[in-house]
Specification:
The chain is an alpha+beta fold and 152 residues long. It contains 5 helices and 6 strands; from the N terminus they run αβααβββααββ. The strands form 3 sheets. The protein has a two-stranded parallel ribbon. A two-stranded antiparallel ribbon has the order 3-4. The longest helix has 20 residues. The chain is elongated. It starts with 7 loop residues before the first helix and ends in a 5-residue tail after the last strand.
Length: 152
C-alpha cells in the first residue's frame, strides 16, 4: 500500500501476534506520524469502525497486537477494546462543538459550569446532533478540543 517503512526483511517478522500495551501503540502511532510522507495524516490509520489499521503500524510495532485498539479521527486519542464506543461519540461531539463555535462564536456549555461539560441540549437545539452520547464530554482549554475525562 504505502512505500515508506517497507522492507521485506523487516516485514517477515512483523506478522507475529504480541500482547502490546496501549503505550506501545501510542508510541507506534507517533512514529508513523513523524515518518509519514507529506499529505499522509494519522487519520489514515483509523478504519471506519474507529479501529486502528495495524497493517500500517507493523513496521513500527514489529508485530500485530492480539487485541484491538481504537482511535478518534478528530483528536487521535487511543482507546482499549473496553472503551471502543468513546471514539465514535468523541468524533461526533467534537464535530458538533466545532460547528457550534463556528455558528455562534461561543462554546456549547451551560453558563457558569466550572467543568465546561458539553451541553447536549444546546447541540440538539442547533440540530447538530440527533442522539445524546451515553457519556459526558468536557471542553478543554486547548483549541476547544473535547475529552471524556472530567476535569479536576
Amino acid at each position: 500500500m504505502f512505500k515508506w517503512g517497507k522492507n521485506k526483511k523487516n516485514q517477515e517478522n512483523c506478522n507475529e501476534i504480541y500482547n502490546f500495551d496501549i503505550e506501545s501503540v501510542k508510541k507506534a502511532v507517533r512514529a508513523f506520524a513523524d515518518q509519514a510522507p507529506k499529505g499522509v495524516t494519522t487519520r489514515t490509520l483509523v478504519k471506519d469502525d474507529h479501529s486502528i489499521d495495524f497493517d500500517l503500524l507493523k513496521p513500527y510495532l514489529k508485530g500485530i497486537p492480539e487485541q484491538n485498539y481504537y482511535m478518534s479521527k478528530e483528536t487521535y486519542e487511543i482507546f482499549e477494546e473496553k472503551d471502543k464506543i468513546i471514539p465514535f461519540y468523541l468524533d461526533m461531539i467534537q464535530f458538533a462543538v466545532d460547528q457550534y463555535v463556528h455558528m455562534y462564536k461561543k462554546i456549547p456549555i451551560t453558563q457558569g459550569d466550572p467543568y465546561r461539560k458539553v451541553s447536549y441540549l444546546l447541540l440538539e437545539k442547533s440540530n447538530l446532533i440527533r442522539e445524546r452520547p451515553p457519556i459526558d464530554f468536557y471542553i478543554t482549554n486547548d483549541e476547544y478540543l473535547i475529552t471524556h475525562k472530567k476535569p479536576r
